[in-house]
Amino acid sequence: LTGFGALNKVLGQPVYNSQDQLGGPQVMVPNGVTHKLVKSDQDGVSAILTWLSYTPKTASCVTPVIEPTDPVDRDVTFVPSKVPYDPRHMLAGTTSPEGERLSGFFDEGTFQEYLEGWGRSVIVGRAKLGGVPMGVIAVETRNVERRVPADPANPLSQEVVEPQAGQVWFPDSAFKTATAIRDFNHGENLPLIIFANWRGF
Asked: Under DSSP, is residue 11 helix (H, G, I), strand (E, B) or coil?
């Protein structure tokens, strides 16, 4: 690949201002290329090590089980509402407006979301339940927006913002779901829990 300066020479005009326009976070995250966006190299290494803590040594090995951080017989105190809510609260827990800790389905502090900026009507990640690592797929209940950045090389191009209804599979979120299932199954040998409450596609 080449840099933005070389592309400007080929195009004969200053179209691109930085490398980010060719593949920075605003391009790679909404396209599903970037699994996790971090702020620094150190955060990146930490995110890689966290991801590896969910995977077995090889795809044919059993997933590593660790001592659970939460009692196995604990109650799940977060209760989903009948109106759209953030499903991450169901998965990871949250704090109520009164300051009370509401536990989620998985062990506290273990849910890690991946591909967050792509196919946003579906949530995928890894978590631990009773110390057992597993893949997670959940449905976003709220409305979201899909953003397609403008192409600086095309003067007629402009950013497109598409509204997407909650609990609906769109082409990007259906592909994200299939990709996650493939990764959990073939690449990582993880058990999978799907919180499926889709209403359409």
From this structure: helix
Contact 25, 19 (CB under 8 A): no
Indicate the pairing of strand 132-139 with strand 122-129.
antiparallel
Task: Say which amino acid occupies 57.
Answer: K
What pLDDT digit, counting tens, does each position of 125-135 carry? 999 999 999 99
The total number of residues written for the chain in this structure: 201
What does the alpha-carbon distance between residue 8 and residue 5 come to, in Å, rounded to a whole number? 5
pLDDT in tens, 76-107: 999 998 899 999 999 999 999 899 999 999 99
The torsion defined by the Cα of 92, 95, 97 and 100, in degrees rounded to 10, comes to 130
CA atoms within a 13 Å half-sphere pointing along the CA-CB vector of 5 = 0
Q: In whole angstroms, what is the distance from residue 35 CA to residue 32 CA?
A: 7
Q: Report the alpha-carbon distance of residue 36 to residue 115 in Å, rounded.
A: 6
With residue 3 as reference, give the H or E element that holds it: none
What pTM, to 2 d.p., does this model score?
A: 0.85
Q: Furthest-apart CA pair in the chain: how many Å? A: 66
